[in-house]
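Q: Got a minute? One more chain.
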Amino acid sequence: MNLSDHFTLQELTRTAYMEYQDEPSQEALQNLKRLCIHFLEPVREVLGCPIQVSSGHRSLVVNRIVGGVITSAHRFGRAADFIPTATSCANAFDIVRHTDLPFDQLILESKGGSQWIHLGIAEEGKEPRRRKYRDWE
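A: Always. Here it is, folded:
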């Protein structure tokens, strides 16, 4: 199922722990569509390259396994972690943070020598905080 021109439901629900993943609720599915259409597609466009989503929607169990907080936007289809294909995560973070995209969170994260960008969106109807930082600052 396509969520937008370049992103699928399969891509936004894929995890290394598929045996613990469940189908997103209707609300989470709508959030995933909004995330893809209004945020990930524009990010892809401004970066001028595809982005690989490494984490989108997470079930409660998967979220616990990966150490996510109970209120993680991933659980509700309002976040994606991604890696750009043609530039560094640090460069992509700097480009995206200077756009006018109404994201709630933009975080350059790293662990074990890997980097990725977390993009979270606010609940429908809520004002986005536009929090942006590197997770080690």
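A: Helices lie at 9-13, 26-47, 60-65, 89-97.
Q: Perfect, thanks.
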